[in-house]
Write a structure and sequence with these properties.
alpha/beta; Rossmann fold; Arc Repressor Mutant, subunit A; 2 domains; five-stranded parallel sheet; 10 helices; 12% strand
Length: 228
């Protein structure tokens, strides 16, 4: 399907929904079902399933939650879905058949937004936005247009052009729990790993942020909007 045909009077925009919370996914399905010119053709509960379904269904748009509970995260799933050598993809990454990914998140954390855009996402939208904004963003993404809000672009794009700390998804999870005051033992228990592993990852976080203490790490992370 060509981008210009997507969402026309005769051909609705096809959407694959990836959301790990069943209740939220059901609500989004009902909401999108009420939108004219939009049709949900598949749903996934995790990143791996989203990648597999995208390869088979070839939707116009994948509505991707970044905060997936376990396994493949939303950023990596986005990267695999939009890459030129993805299963079933044509030689031209802009040609019909390569789904556009629209990120749907709870927080407008700059680090997550930047990672998603670098991974190939067509845009970003908060779950708190009005339904009309979501519908418009889906239609825009299907046509290959960016759906990044001006306020977000103003903050994020300059950061993408300049050096900034780059943390992995696991490091961001550790840093977030660190900011909440959890001890190393509590962080290890929450992430189902060992205290030694957490300590090693903390050293890597300190090195990337150029700091030597928890307090400094949290302060620098907040300065760079790495934390929600």
């Amino acid at each position: 399907m060509s981008p210009s045909a997507a969402g026309s009077a005769h051909t609705p925009v096809s959407v694959l929904l990836c959301e790990d919370h069943a209740v939220i996914r059901a609500g989004l399905l009902a909401l999108l079902g009420s939108a004219h010119g939009i049709e949900v053709i598949g749903e996934a509960g995790d990143g791996e399933e989203a990648v597999a379904l995208a390869a088979v269904l070839r939707p116009d748009v994948v509505l991707m939650d970044l905060e997936l509970g376990s396994g493949l995260d939303g950023v990596e799933a986005t990267r695999r879905i939009t890459r030129a050598d993805a299963p079933g993809a044509p030689d031209d990454p802009d040609a019909p058949g390569v789904p556009h990914v629209l990120v749907l998140t709870t927080y407008d954390t700059d680090a997550d937004i930047a990672r998603a855009i670098e991974a190939g996402a067509a845009g970003h939208l908060l779950k708190a936005e009005p339904p009309e904004e979501l519908f418009a963003a889906i239609r825009a993404a299907a046509e290959g247009r960016s759906t990044l809000a001006a306020s977000v672009a103003h903050r994020v794009l300059p950061q993408m052009r300049s050096p900034r700390p780059t943390l992995t998804d696991r490091e961001l999870k550790i840093l977030g729990r660190l900011a909440r005051g959890l001890s190393i033992r509590e962080i290890a228990r929450a992430l189902s790993t060992s205290e030694a592993t957490v300590k090693t990852q903390l050293e890597r976080i300190y090195d990337k942020l150029g700091v030597a203490s928890r307090t400094a790490a949290v302060s620098v992370a907040r300065e760079h909007r790495l934390l929600p």
